[in-house]
Amino acid sequence: MSKTLEVLSKYKYLIALISVFNFLLTPIHASISSIQPAHPVVINYTLVILASSLIASDSRKRIRTYALGAITLVFIWIEFSYPNHMGILACRLASSLVLFSHFCLLLIHQLRKIRTMNLQFILGPILGFIYLGIIGGIFFETVHLIDPSSFRFHSDISGYVYYYFSFISITTVGYGDITPITPQAQAITLVLNVIGQFYLAIVIALFVGKYINEKK
């Protein structure tokens, strides 16, 4: 048991990173599986919660992570039963925002403790970047909930499209298949563009600085 805990602690960032990448591939899982679409979403969300909880430094934070995750999963299940209920959708978005913000805080707290250039120091910022993209998707979905005319879509609309747009925004790719129309949507897009660029610049500076310090 202690050996297992040691391995989980050593590779916790890698496990969390694999879980969020798997979460981003949920539409593929849903398309190739014969089970109901709700099941891959809930399964992958649960894996993210369990894997991200490994980042917590003590049992109290881990229990808080489980509690926030359980609340979010409940709203996800209810939303599949009542897909057009705006109140349930708002609760799911709010709980998801709190959950992934909690993940970010856990990650920042742990990264501050890392003093040497190692695997955790490399994987941690990558994990944080994906958390940032998911939070951006939650904001875009919330904006669309408030005002359905916030975006112009050139393809079928699904809940996943907001997270796709979030990641192409923070990476400033801009394929043009989704266009923010209202000032609110444009403002959030602009903020994510700026945050994405500064995030990458800061992470690179930290890598270089820590590498130089270790060489000295």
Q: What's the count of strands?
A: 2
Name the beta content range.
Answer: under 5%
The major beta sheet can be summarized as: 2 strands, antiparallel
Helix content: over 70%
Number of domains: 2
Rg over CA atoms: 18 Å
Order of helices and strands: HHHHHHHEHEH
Strand order of the largest sheet: 1-2
Describe this structure in words.
- Keywords: Membrane, Transmembrane, Transmembrane helix.
- The chain crosses the membrane at residues 12-32, 38-56, 63-80, 86-109, 121-140, 160-178, 190-212.
- It holds the Pfam family Ion_trans_2.
- There is one protein chain.
- The chain has helices spanning 2-10, 12-24, 26-32, 38-53, 59-81, 86-111, 119-146, 161-170, 183-215, and strands at 151-153, 178-180.
- It is built from 9 helices and 2 strands; from the N terminus they run H-H-H-H-H-H-H-E-H-E-H.
- It is mostly helical.
- Helix content is 76%, strand content 3%.
- The radius of gyration is 18 Å and the shape is globular.
- The N and C termini lie far apart (39 Å).
- Helix 3 (26-32) packs antiparallel against helix 4 and helix 6 packs antiparallel against helix 7 (119-146).
- It folds into 2 domains: 1-110; 114-216, Helix Hairpins, CATH 1.10.287.
- The chain has a two-stranded antiparallel sheet with strand order 1-2.
Keywords for this entry:
transmembrane helix, 2 strands, globular, two-stranded antiparallel sheet, Ion channel, 76% helix, 216 residues, K_chnl_dom, mainly alpha, 9 helices, Helix Hairpins
